[in-house]
Design a protein that fits this description.
single chain, 214 residues, mainly alpha, 2 domains, 5 helices, rod-shaped
Amino acid sequence: MWAPKIAPTEHQGSLIRIHGSSGTLFDPTFMRYQVSEQTRLRQISCEVFVTAGLEAALNIDRESFNYAHPHVVYITKWLHAALRRVATVQKRIAAEIRADARDAAAEQAEQALADVAADAWKEESDDPGAEPPPVEFEGDDDTPTPDGAAAPYRYSREKVFGASKRPKQPSPAERKLKAVVQLLAAFDVLDDLTVDQQERLLQGLRKIIEAPDR
């Protein structure tokens, strides 16, 4: 059993029951598990029920085991393999949860930026139904927008972000720059600038956005 916190703490570890009873306490080392999983092991309580064998592996005090006995060696290997499976599955699930949380946070941040640009565009255009124009950063290998489609603001990714591969997902700086372009377009700041001037302006804004706080 895994739980964020095992209480009482004396139940952290593994307990071997032979024919339903045990003279030993919970073993927090999980039968000398050597992998460094200190936090995760403190969150696991395990009971192993043995119905045949292992009696001869009990020491004379009947409170500990002879770890050289074949039965103890066998059950130790099984327990450690089970712990590895538990850790692998839990790490995978935790990674998926973190990825989902990052995606949700990115979606919320992108929506907040879109709302700022949309509100400014509607206010300046005096049209409640107006939407800000789309903005694209394109590479040399990107497929151009077909003729007749809405003409967004298009800029060279290399000139604005430098020479780099096209990311699978827009970076935070790219999402912010798109909102900045829409905001500037709402106030007609870009119309008197050439595309080259706009790209140099966005390059400077990108450097400001990415500059570390000191």
